[in-house]
Structures are given as structure tokens and as C-alpha cells.
User: Fold these one by one.
Assistant:
Number 1:
Amino acid sequence: MPCPKMRDAYMVSDPVFLDKDAVLCTAMNVGYARYGLDGAALEVYGVMIYWRIQPNECTLDSILISCVNLRGFSYSVDS
């Protein structure tokens, strides 16, 4: 279930992207991925790329999770 405050967080942080803050962008990506807002996570990642903000391991991890969720992949473990 999406967190209702995530949209508010994006609206508050949107002007902050101009500061090119990797920590803020990563936090937004992780939050969106955690609450199932995968399209929004990819949108933030697009902003990072546009502003040439260097993603870190956490950013890439959350983006990979969002990509997998959007594609509808499922994982299974064979015993």
C-alpha cells in the first residue's frame, strides 16, 4: 500500500533537485520502491541522470527493484 505522504515528499523536494543532492534522490528512490511507486522511482532516477547526479549502490538497488516490479517478474526458488 502506497504511503500517502510520498507524493507530498516529492512536491516538497522537487525544487531541492536543483541542488543536485544524491542523498535526497536516493532516499526518494528507496521510499518510492518500498511503497510500490515504481514509476515515480524511475522518474526521480531520470532527474538524477538529467542533472548528472552520480547514483550510488543504494540508488541502483532501488532502481533495479522498481524495474523488476514494473516488468512483473516473479522469483522462485527450486528446492
Number 2:
Amino acid sequence: MTSPTSLYHDTMRQLNKAFAKATSITVLNMAYHQYPSFVLPLLLITLASMSSNTLVAEARHLLELTLPELPTLPHLPTLPEPELPSLPKVELPTLPHFPSLPEPKLPAVPELEVPKLPELPKPTLPTIAAIPKTTNTP
């Protein structure tokens, strides 16, 4: 008994033999031909860069271009500043009086005695000999 994959390959080989005379592309190669994953993005970037309209020379012309003077506009009369109408005064209702709560009495916190730490001697750093200065500089 043959496996389905070997049957598939046998069928493809037979199709290749049948169509090899008429075409230059074989069916087996078409079934297994895969492009690497970077080819399509690379192709898109290449086509996008070819179709860009970079106008470096046009920027130079813009710098040298003199614009025509614009005509002055006729003087328009100034409008008065708009005034907003005053809003009516609204009386707020008074809040009912609530009795205040008595302050809670907390027990006194005992003071903790912190033991005195002995003073540690300060470390002395080693002295490094000074580097002699040379006067012969190029």
C-alpha cells in the first residue's frame, strides 16, 4: 500500500512528463516553489522608492522665486465687543445641621529607648604618589 504523499509525488511526476513538452514550467516546481519571507517587503520598498517624487532642484527655485505683492484690503469697520447677558442669581438651599462627632481618644504611645551605638573609627584612604609633570611636550 502506498502512502498519500508518495501517490501525490507520482501523480506530479506524471503531470510533469505530460506537460514538459508544451511548457517550460514544470508542475512539480510550481508546487514546491517558495519565496523567502523578505522578498515581498523588499520588492514593495523598492517600488515605493522608485515612484517617489523627490524634487531637490525645485527647492532651489523656491528660494530664488519672488512672490508678487498682495493688494491691501479695504479698511473694515470694527465691530463692538459682544456682551454676554448676566445669569440670574440662584439661591442655594441651606444644608441641615448635623451634630459633630466627638474626637476619638487614642491611648498614649510609649516612647522607645534607642540604644546608643558605639562610634566606629573612620577609615583612612591610602595616599597615591603624585605623577611627575614633564616639561618636554611636543
Number 3:
Amino acid sequence: MPVPSQTSGGVEFALANGKTVIIAVLQGLNAAVPLIESGIASAKSLAKKLEPYHPQELSTIVFGLMLIFFGGQSPHSVLLSTQALTSLLQFPITLAAIEAFRICGW
């Protein structure tokens, strides 16, 4: 079955413009590499500075603070609806998931 002439024009157009897009993306990545390397070096130096303060426990602290401030809603500010019940159940379900993860292999 012959290919219509309209399709071949579209393919040629895509190939011609695809080259310029690829070049632009590669130039952007080339410009981003020094910034990424700088960010990695900064993260390594920050990790080295935080080493005496047990940074491996930092994720637990941050997660705990998130649960304190964003974990649940007070019952008097919630209307009785499916969405309200779902939001009220997120807090204990999150805690149950964390405890299950800890028991199973952390």
C-alpha cells in the first residue's frame, strides 16, 4: 500500500525540526551539568557537616513533624461526607503503614 504524500512531508518536517530540538536539549543539558555538579558538592559538604548530629534520623523527625502539623483534621471542622471520613482515616492509616514497614524489615 503506498504511503500518502501528506505523511512523507510531515516526516521530513519532523526530522528537520527534530535535529534542532535535540541540539537545544543537549545544549541545555551541557549548561546544567556544572550546576548539578555544584549541587552535589554542596549536598556532600552539608552531609559531612551534619554527620555528628545523626542525619539518618532526620527523615523520621521530618516525617513526625509533618504528621503533627498536617496529619489529621479536627472532627468539629469536618462535614460528614465520604471525603471527610477519608481525610480523618489518613492519619491512623499512615501510622499503621509505618509500623508495618518497621516490623517487616526495617
